[in-house]
Each structure stands twice: as structure tokens, then as C-alpha cells.
């Protein structure tokens, strides 16, 4: 079970408070989108969940277990970033295998995991190529493959499609939704793009100025916005 519970998370950088007492209960296998304007704290919240940044106060529970002080590697979480950070000199195969090499996984299991991820992401015939020989969408899939092989319980995506052109972004949205259905995992997806949020999410968290404006299904937000900000941001006049 990969429920994700955020309990009263706050974060300050020096005297600047950027997250204010955020509490959210995310269900197992749910696809939740954090949406909000630039600077509202989306990446900071995601980095705190991943363990890359420490909350000033509050707790994070995964599957009912407190991971607030756990090392990032021990949280069962994988994060996919906006910039893919692939190794240009390594093949697609080795880029995907990289986290397993670091774990010193034995060869047969490593190969099985890489092949499985490549199959899901339709990269099976690209495994011997270098990242420079791939399209933008294929490179993003390699980055996702590198997350899948670790069998995380929770996937975090920080604006993974914002470097892609509009047409490709549409295709990748569909692919990520399919990926969510094919994997047994909870996903948290950050974007500043309302359309992306409305089309992909089971539930949406609207953030503004480091606070949760509303947490609900796309239809709830659209038809019953709780605040003026949500109404304007999601596009329905109040
Ligand atoms: P978003 O991802 O929604 O655009 P961020 O989480 O990146 O927003 O940033 C939220 C706020 O926190 C911004 O005002 C940003 O300037 C500030 N911030 C983020 N990281 C740091 C940091 N390491 N030091 C100081 N301020 C930061
Ligand atoms: Mg950000």
C-alpha cells in the first residue's frame, strides 16, 4: 500500500515562509496533480516528499509509515525531473540500468527489469542507441524508465513535459496515463498547466502562495470551486 500522507508540512527559507501547514491524504494508486502558478511552492513540496529538502515542520507518511527522516533512497520514491539528466556517453540500456548498477543488482534480474521497463515505454528497439540519437519524447521515456526499474511505490514528476513541444506533450500525457494504469504505483505530478491537470488527474491540489486552495476531482474544482482563485485558475467564473 502506497498511501501518501502529508501532515502539516511547512517550509521556510530563512525568513521566507514558502509552504504553510499543508495536509493532504493521497490514496494508494491515485494520480494526483499539484497545480499552481510559478513560485507557489510545487517543486519545494515535491522535493520534501522525495527527501531532497527538509521540511521546517510536519510529517510525511508512506503506507502509514513515517518516512520524514528517512534517506531519499529508502523512501520507495522515484522522482522524474523536467531536465532529463541522461548520461550522453551511455546507451539507453545503461541509462535505464544505472540505478540498479549503483545497487549492485545481479545481472539476470537487472536485465529483466530493464527489458520490462523498455517494453512498457516502447524503447525495446532503442536500447543500444545513445541519448543524442533519440527524440525529445524518447529521451523523456528513458528518464521515466530509469525510475520504473527501481519499482518505486510512489512516483513524483516535476513538470516532466515542459521541455517538449505541444504535440508531443499531448502524446506523452496519454502515455503517462497509460503508464499509471499499468504500474501498481501512486503518482504525484506537478505542473503549472491547468489543461494537463484537468485531463490527467484523479484529484487536483491547487496551490497558491504556499497554501492549498482546494483538493478535489477535476469536476469538483470546475463546478464547485471553493475560492475565487480556484475558479479563475481552473477557468469557471464564480
Ligand atoms: P514552483 O515549483 O511552484 O515554481 P518553488 O517550490 O520552486 O515553486 O519555489 C517556491 C518559493 O520558494 C519561491 O519563492 C522560490 O523562490 C523559493 N525557493 C525555492 N527554493 C529555494 C531555496 N533553495 N532557497 C531560497 N528560496 C527558495
Ligand atoms: Mg517548480
Automatic annotation (TrEMBL):
The keyword Signal does not apply. Keywords: ATP-binding, Nucleotide-binding, Transport. GO terms for molecular function: ABC-type maltose transporter activity; ATP binding; ATP hydrolysis activity. The keyword Nucleotide-binding applies. Residues 4-234 form the ABC transporter domain. One of its GO terms (cellular component) is maltose transport complex. It comes from the Bacteria. Belongs to the ABC transporter superfamily. This is Carbohydrate ABC transporter ATP-binding protein, CUT1 family. It comes from Yoonia litorea. The lineage of its organism: Bacteria, Pseudomonadati, Pseudomonadota, Alphaproteobacteria, Rhodobacterales.
